């Protein structure tokens, strides 16, 4: 594309606009994220916590990269953004089995960026000739920047695909994919390629991090800790993305032991599937682990370890987050925002079949203290507890796993 340097006045206007874009309002970022994570073509990315977090990080990276370049050299061509954020997402897309069509998200982000930038441009000048030149130069710049960045990322994705189709990792990943899809592969052949028995009982796990500065070596240490908690020497550990591992162990892990190991691995999170036997169990447990991970992400839960059997009901209740929020609000009323010790006391009381003595023991508190908290909780509920104990218990479980606003 031929490039004509804009006039000094328009260069100054571009610089002013770029400085605004360097400190984007929260609503800009929210709109970019919504555009790049919605739509049928991007469902798989939006449903994956690591890919979704990477996409949001890439949105910020692209916006700041273009804006910073135009502060330094207003109106000059901006090179492709081949920094770590977009390259990392490219690697992860390939490792999830996606192709370059996933880069459609860049086009969705571009349309939002063009509209937001046009609003900025119109606020900088009322001179129609200045505005025409400003928009002509800057919109061509945005289009060229996105085209060049998509081209650079496509090259990286092809290289990553070539790397993954060679060697043992590719063979193990392909075998796991066949098993998860229910494709015809004999048990003996799959076990030989994986080095992992498929007849025993399995517990699958998703081990991941959404912390941008996390030490990725901790993911493999967490996988090893999972195996140790299940009494095994090593797990089946598949690299799903740079920040995600798919893991299987035989039997069920000791979650207390696993939780203690996680305390030494900051930033790492684990979602456990059900514990079930055979090849069907291998597949079922993995899908349950994915459901658990997606629920934690959907609810912005701070929990770093969750098992499917703990969250199955909550996962079903919160499939539609807005309806789940309305259910919790209607059911709990003022209790929803009560002090944590009051909320937890009622939750444990219901879990112990409304037995105050057992609940007090479980909470390590005096029975009279518990009764005072229960009385306070009863006053905050919109309806008496006895009239809708099941609904209150379900709402409290949602509240337990949901991140506080």
Strand content: 5-15%
Principal-axis shape equals: flat
Overall average residue pLDDT: 89
Strand order, largest beta sheet: 2-3-1-4-5
CATH topology value of the largest domain: Globin-like
Using only CA atoms, what is the Rg? 26 Å
- Per CATH, the architecture of the largest domain is Orthogonal Bundle
User: Structural class of the helices, strands and pairings?
Assistant: alpha+beta
Helix run count: 18
Q: Would you count the extended β strands for me?
A: 5
Give the SSE order as H and E letters. HHHHHHHHHEHEEHEHEHHHHHH
CATH C-level of the largest domain: Mainly Alpha
Which bin fits the share of residues in helices?
Answer: 55-70%
InterPro entries: CdaR-like_regulators, CdaR_GGDEF, PucR_C-HTH_dom, PucR_C-HTH_sf
Family: Belongs to the CdaR family.
Pfam families: GGDEF_2, HTH_30
Protein name: PucR family transcriptional regulator
Concise synopsis of the structure shown:
By secondary structure, this protein is an alpha+beta fold. About 65% of the residues lie in helices and about 10% in strands.
Structural notes for this entry:
The protein is built from 18 helices and 5 strands. A 5-stranded mixed beta sheet has the order 2-3-1-4-5. The two termini are 48 Å apart. It has helices spanning 8-21, 26-36, 43-47, 49-72, 84-95, 104-124, 128-164, 167-181, 187-194, 217-229, 255-262, 278-298, 308-317, 321-332, 340-351, 356-363, 367-380, 389-401; strands at 201-208, 236-241, 244-250, 269-277, 305-307. The chain folds into 3 domains: 8-164, Globin-like (Orthogonal Bundle); 200-308, Alpha-Beta Plaits (2-Layer Sandwich); 321-401, PucR C-terminal helix-turn-helix domain (Arc Repressor Mutant, subunit A). Helix 12 (278-298) links the parallel strand 4 and strand 5 (305-307). It has 405 residues and is of the alpha+beta class.
